[in-house]
Structures are given as structure tokens and as C-alpha cells.
């Protein structure tokens, strides 16, 4: 992922100790929470590579759970995330895997509750940035249909949301559901937009040029029942 500003190189305002193992991990957990749409009842976090070897010392465990709790990278509650998760009824399990992976900072999050499940694979690529590689919808109801989802990281500035929704409207792309959350007034914010159809690359490129937009992820989920195998789609 190319750096767009000096702040991408320095990294985010964060609770340490590591931008890769803490801030990036937090963002993986937070995106998984946004995709799931609610606080799950349980989450199994499978860690690979460097994550598996150093997750306690570098705070990867509390960082991922803090993201699932929807805490920002600078939230002072991050060190207490495991305790807070238990208080909120979230059952957390960590699994360490020695399976070979393409990137050393890889985590697989399986979120579940009575309404269904979601599996998200993310990697922390440095400087607090991350990429989502796989999203799998886990559902015992084969008639359920998932929809393309777009995640837009932006500055909490006047007009940022309106510019994105207006662009989608110009291209006749309907929004089925939308949620916006922010770390604080005037700080980082995240739009989670459920769409009726995927957005093509030309629209994504145009969206990158809009004011206050930082990063964009378009998520195409692969759906399977709990007993079904299959290969998940990647994230654009």
C-alpha cells in the first residue's frame, strides 16, 4: 500500500508498543466488528507467524480485542480490553498456529453469536495500516444473502460522508445500510456501507480523490453454511 502522507509513515496516534502488532491489529479487529455489525458473543482469534510468537509482549491480543470492542487505536482502555470484553459477555479464545502464511503478521478472527458467524483474515502491513484478505460469511441458513460492503476510512470533516454518498448516487449504486463511527470530533472516522452491488475500480479511484478520504476497502463476502467447504473471496 503506498504512503500518501508523512502521517502514514509515522503511524497513527496509538497505545503502544508497536504500530504493526498493536495499531494494525486493533484495526483488523475493528473492521471485523464493523463487518459483523454488532458485538459478537464469542470470537476465536487464530494468530500466525510473528503475531503468534510475540502477541503477548507486543499487545496484539489486547489490540485485536479492543478493535472488536470498537475502540480506536488511541483509546486509553486498550490495555484493559480483555477484562472489558469479559465484563461485556464476550468470550475470547486465542489459537496459535504454525501453519505457513504469506505474511508474518496474520490473524484470522471468527466472530459468532445466535444470529450467525463471520470469519475475517487480516494482515498488519506496518505503520498501523492493515489489509483484509478474506471474509467468509458463516451461516446455518442457506437462504440468507450477504451484500457487498465498502469500508471508508476518512477524517471527521464536514461533507466527507455527503461526498461519498453523492458519488455512489451519481453512479446509481444503492445503499442498503450505512453506519458511521468516529474516534472523536474532527479525528478519524469509518463509514461501513452495505451496497446492493459491487463498485467498479473507476468509482473507487474517483472516491480516493474526494476530500478527507484516507483508505477504502471493498469487501466481497463468500457465503457458506457451517458444514460447507469452499474458497473465500479476496478483498479488493
Automatic annotation (TrEMBL):
Coiled coil: none
Pfam family, one: ACT
UniProt keyword Iron present: yes
Domain ACT stretches: 149-227
Pathway entry: Carbohydrate biosynthesis; gluconeogenesis
UniProt-listed SUPFAM superfamilies: ACT-like, Serine metabolism enzymes domain
Catalyzed reaction equations: L-serine = pyruvate + NH4(+)
Alphabetically ordered keywords of this record: 4Fe-4S, Gluconeogenesis, Iron, Iron-sulfur, Lyase, Metal-binding
Cofactor list: [4Fe-4S] cluster
InterPro entries associated with the record: ACT-like_dom_sf, ACT_dom, ASB_dom_sf, Fe-S_L-Ser, Fe-S_L-Ser_bsu, Ser_deHydtase_bsu
Family to which this protein belongs: Belongs to the iron-sulfur dependent L-serine dehydratase family.
Name of the protein: L-serine deaminase
Amino acid at each position: 500500500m503506498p504512503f500518501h502522507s508523512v502521517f502514514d509513515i509515522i503511524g497513527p496516534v496509538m497505545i503502544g508498543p508497536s504500530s504493526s502488532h498493536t495499531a494494525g491489529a486493533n484495526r483488523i479487529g475493528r473492521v471485523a466488528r464493523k463487518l459483523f455489525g454488532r458485538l459478537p458473543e464469542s470470537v476465536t482469534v487464530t494468530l500466525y507467524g510473528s503475531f503468534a510468537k510475540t502477541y503477548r509482549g507486543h499487545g496484539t491480543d489486547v489490540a485485536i480485542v479492543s478493535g472488536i470492542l470498537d475502540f480506536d487505536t488511541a483509546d486509553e482502555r486498550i490495555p484493559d480490553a480483555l477484562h472489558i470484553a469479559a465484563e461485556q459477555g464476550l468470550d475470547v479464545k486465542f489459537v496459535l498456529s504454525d501453519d505457513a502464511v504469506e505474511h508474518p503478521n496474520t490473524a484470522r478472527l471468527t466472530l459468532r453469536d445466535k444470529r450467525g458467524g463471520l470469519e475475517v483474515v487480516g494482515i498488519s502491513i506496518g505503520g498501523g495500516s492493515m489489509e483484509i484478505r478474506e471474509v467468509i460469511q458463516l451461516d446455518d441458513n442457506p437462504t440468507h444473502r450477504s451484500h457487498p460492503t465498502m469500508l471508508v476510512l476518512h477524517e471527521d470533516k464536514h461533507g466527507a460522508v455527503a461526498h461519498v454518498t453523492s458519488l455512489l448516487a451519481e453512479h446509481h449504486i444503492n445503499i442498503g445500510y450505512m453506519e458511521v463511527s468516529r474516534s472523536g470530533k474532527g479525528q478519524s472516522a469509518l463509514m461501513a456501507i452495505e451496497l446492493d452491488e459491487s463498485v467498479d475500480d473507476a468509482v473507487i479511484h474517483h472516491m480516493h480523490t474526494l476530500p478527507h478520504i484516507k483508505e477504502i476497502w471493498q469487501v466481497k463476502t463468500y457465503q457458506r453454511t457451517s458444514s460447507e467447504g469452499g474458497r473465500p473471496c479476496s478483498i479488493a
